Amino acid sequence: MINNVVLIGAGNLATQLALALFENGIQVKQIYSRKLETAIELAGKVGAAFTNNLSQLISDADLYVIAVKDLAIQEILENLSLNENMLIVHTAGSVPMEILDGFSLNYGVFYPLQTLSKYRKADFSVVPVCIEANHPSNLMKLQELAGRLSDSVHQISSVERKTLHLAAVFANNFVNHFYAIGAEILEDKKLNFDLLKPLILETAAKIKTLGPVEAQTGPATRNDTATISSHLKMLQDRPEFQKIYSFVSESIFQLQQKHNHDLF
Amino acid sequence: MINNVVLIGAGNLATQLALALFENGIQVKQIYSRKLETAIELAGKVGAAFTNNLSQLISDADLYVIAVKDLAIQEILENLSLNENMLIVHTAGSVPMEILDGFSLNYGVFYPLQTLSKYRKADFSVVPVCIEANHPSNLMKLQELAGRLSDSVHQISSVERKTLHLAAVFANNFVNHFYAIGAEILEDKKLNFDLLKPLILETAAKIKTLGPVEAQTGPATRNDTATISSHLKMLQDRPEFQKIYSFVSESIFQLQQKHNHDLF
Questions:
Q1: How far is B150 from chain A (nearest CA, A)?
Q2: Distance between CA atoms of A93 and A161, rounded to whole angstroms?
Q3: Cβ within 8 Å, pair A244-B227
Q4: What are the backbone angles phi and psi of residue B72, rounded to the nearest 5°?
């Protein structure tokens, strides 16, 4: 059983994970960050020790969590000097578990599928945690730990995790970009973005009960070319948004056709 | 003051509007729908009379609301035979108010900026209602009525309303399409769409406190070409999604650059 953890990283994910561990009675022994002030800030919130020196990591933690940017994982691993029995996980969506092979005999992945921010408290109990491990005994340990933080724990392979991450890019990054385009369109005409917020919240809330294809409405779905043309004309000063409008409208229409075809 | 209403239409918007009127003590006198059963179904919920014949509309209501598809408004108007003093509004985002000119001396627009469904109860009190009228006295009447249903009432011109509708297409239709693409990507690999739902809800909830450009994360923002290439490769069997991925990623990067440039 994992009773204490060393966290390598102090960014968005590391911060929310540290808070969730702390609140669920799992000791965060130490926080590492390249920047000492960043390590100190997070360590202060969860009563942990801190360091900006990988050679000063505590040597006997039950689990070492590497929660840094994808591209920094390799470098962290090459500079770790832990006993080869120590259990190490990373938290990245797109990085295969096997990156940890050779650095320890016990390793795995602990991937929370959520958008996490340093200063916005996450309700970790509803965050899907995707776990993977190199050995059943390690998987059991991670399963038990994840189960203390979240009601939604899933055993997911590296290949599946990559697919989840790709889907998450559409459902988070791209969706958020469309909020941004909406905001730009309104700002260009001095209209307040707040007017769109209830719509944004309800659009998301709907998928709890309605499939997204079923929930789809709007000019593209009904191939309303008059409205589509008029919208494209309104976007003539923003050719990049015009292009996206055309492509996405076309794609909506195709997907609706495909599903109608599947149904009948 | 508007104490009673005749509703022309019984679709998604008409249904939620009828329920909101009814619950706030404004009498729905009569419901018209082309299909009699549809009129009867909604009329039953709000204690209204019903008809599928425009020549049988009650002649003395305080307000006539045309809540039908954009393309059906003109035909409805041509078949109405009301006293020319009657107050008439439509509820469409993209249709100018002036479509009502010539059919009555008193007219306006009552546009709820929300995605509404027949069978999903809307909390109308938070729905932004955009109103417009051909005369200050009509505007006052609509303002007062809207204020009884919603805490968010806005005087919006036809041109502004069209801009809001365009922004709403991005924030609702296009966003929802990206939920659908996420669902397709997972389905192709037999992964459960439920795994994405907490992310979708949190992505929307974030905009309550964080601007969408500020909230943006992901490979496109940091121009992480390795992850972008790998995602494009994963989409090779879905070329339409591949194309959208490229365009949107490019657009995210450009918008971030623009905003960074604005900042420094």
A1: 12
A2: 6
A3: no
A4: -95, -10
Judging contacts by C-beta atoms under 8 Å, the chain A residues touching residue B117 are 206, 210, 215
Nearest CB to A216 within list B128, B180, B235: B180
Q: Mind giving me the DSSP string for B183-252?
A: HHHHHHTT--GGGGHHHHHHHHHHTTTS-HHHH--STTTTT-HHHHHHHHHHTTT-HHHHHHHHHHHHHH
Q: Is the pLDDT of residue B40 over 70?
A: yes
Rounded CA-CA distance B126/B124 in Å is 5
What's the CATH number where B103 sits?
A: 3.40.50.720
Contact criterion met (CB < 8 Å) for B176 and A221: no
A105: helix, strand or coil:
coil
What CATH number is given to the structural domain containing B237?
1.10.1040.20
pLDDT digits (tens, 9 = 90+) for A105-158: 999 999 999 999 999 999 999 999 999 999 999 999 999 999 999 999 999 999
Structural domain boundaries, residue A81: 4-156
For residue B30, what are the β-bridge partners?
B6, B49
* pLDDT 10s digits, B60-117: 999 999 999 998 999 999 999 999 999 999 999 999 999 999 999 999 999 999 999 9
Nearest CA in chain B to A229: B166
The last residue of one of the domains, among A156, A182, A214, is: A156
Residue B165 and residue B245 share a domain: yes
Pair (B95, B25) in one structural domain: yes
Nearest to A206 among B94, B115, B186 (CB): B115
Q: Are residues A147 and A181 in the same domain?
A: no
Instruction: Answer whether B251 sits within 8 Å of A240, measured CB to CB.
Output: yes
pLDDT digits (tens, 9 = 90+) for B205-261: 999 999 999 889 889 988 889 899 999 999 999 999 999 999 999 999 999 888 887
Q: How confident is the model at residue B264 (pLDDT cuts 50, 70, 90)?
A: low
Pick B126's closest partner by Cβ from A198, A208, A220: A198
In this structure, the answer to whether residues B17 and B130 fall within a common structural domain is: yes
* In a shared domain, residues A188 and A240: yes
Contact B196 A152 (CB under 8 A): no
Which of B130, B156, B182 is the endpoint of a domain?
B156
Q: Which residues of B touch A196 (CB under 8 A)?
A: 113, 164, 167-168, 171
Q: How far from the centroid of its chain's Cα atoms is residue A64's Cα?
A: 20
Burial class (CB within 10 angstroms; exposed 0-12, middle 13-18, buried 19+) of A110: buried
Q: Do A126 and B198 touch (CB under 8 A)?
A: yes
Q: Which of B128, B221, B251 sits opposite A195 (nearest CB)?
A: B128
